[in-house]
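so my prof wants the structure for this chain in the C-alpha cells format not the other one, which i didnt know existed until like an hour ago. anyway here's the sequence
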Amino acid sequence: MSRESERGSGADLPGETAGDAPGEAVLPGALPEALRAELIAFRRDLHMHPELGNQEFRTTAALKARLERAGLEPRVLDIGTGLVCDIGEQGDPVRPMLALRADIDALPIPDTKLGVPYRSTVPDRAHACGHDVHTTVVLGAGLVLAELAKQGQLPQPVRLIFQPAEEVLPGGAPDAIESGVLDGVGRIVGVHCDPRVDAGKIGLRHGAITSACDRLEVSLDGAGGHTARPHLTTDLVTAAAKVVTEVPALVARRIDARSGLAVTWGRVESGHACNVIPQHAELSGTVRCLDLAAWRKAPDLVHGAIQEIADLYRAKSEVNYIRGVPPVVNDPDMTELLREAMELRLGEHSVEDTEQSLGGEDFSWYLEHVPGAMARLGVRTPGERTVRDLHQGDFDADETAITVGVELFTAAALIDGIR
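here's what i got, hopefully its the right format
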C-alpha cells in the first residue's frame, strides 16, 4: 500500500535532487513510514469513535494530546471543541500565516461497513464523509512541519485549524472564526475526500468547487373543512401542492439560469383524513446555488415566490429560510499552489480537473475573509468498481490517501513560505 518508495526518502532537503530525476529540486517533508502507520491507526481510532458536531470532545482531546507530545501548544476553541495550533515562530510580521484546515465531526447515520476492524462502535454515528481522514491529514502535516521547524527548515509559520460542526448548518466555521482562528492568517487550504477520484490523485478547480446550500421550512395555514365544500375553505393541500411544483419554476425563471439556483423539496406533510381539508401544512427542502452572487439574492426570490402562490390560494404562509453555506470559491493563486505542491510530490499525472459539486461545505466561510483553495482528495482504490458515495453508511477511504494529503499540505506550506 505504501508509495513512499516511488517518491524518494524523507531526507531530501531544499536544493538537493531526487536520485531518479537528476537536476530536479525536491522538498523535504515526505512522510516517514513509522508516522504513516501511526496516522492510519489514529484515523481508525477516530473512525471507531465518531462524534457529532459540537460534541467532539474525545476527538479534540486526542488531537490535543498528540500535538502536545510533539512539543506544540494547541488551544481548544472557545466553543469547547476543536483546536487551533501554530507551528514555527513568526519570522515576517508583515506576511500572514498559511492555515491548514480540517473538519472533525461525524454524521448521524449508522456505519454499515462489513469486515473492517475499525467499524464505528457508536450506534447511528459514522464518519461517512471522510472527516476522520481530513483530520488525520492535517495532524500528520502538522507533525511533519513541527519536525522541520525544529530543524530550521520551515520558512514560514503555519496554523492548524481543527474545526467542529461542519455538518451542522451554517457550519462550525463561523464560530471558529469568532474564536480567532483567522487572526494572523492570510491564506487557507483544505481537502475533501472524493470517492470518484483514485487515491494518489487530487482534483482541482479554479473558482467555485462546491455549491451554496440553504435550508427552507414553510408553514401554510388556512380555514379547513369538508372535502365536499372546498370552495368554503382554504384548500390547503392544493395550496401546498402548488408551492411544491410552482415555486421552483418561478425562482428559476427570475434569475440567470447559469447560476444553478434550485429549490428542491424533501418533506411535505398535511392532513389526517381523506375527507377533511386540513388547516395546516408543512414543507421543507433545500435551496442550492452554483453562483455566489445569486446565492445572496436567493432568500428574497424564494420568499416572494412562496408568498405569491400562497396568496393565490388564500393561505397564510410563514417561511423560515435558514442560511447554510455559500459556495467554496477557490482562489486561482492558491489553487495553483496546491497544483504545484502535488506535482512536486507525485508528478503531473497526480492532478486532475474536477467539476463543481452541488454539495455544500462550510470551508466557504473562511474564504469570505481570506483567499484559499480546497482540493478533492482521491480516496478510491485504483481499479475498484464498488461506488461508495459520501454520506452513505458504507463509505470508506483508501488509507494511502492519508500519505498523499500529508505530503500535499507539507509541500504547500514549504512552497508558500519561500514564495
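also thought this was worth mentioning. The longest strand covers residues 185-198.
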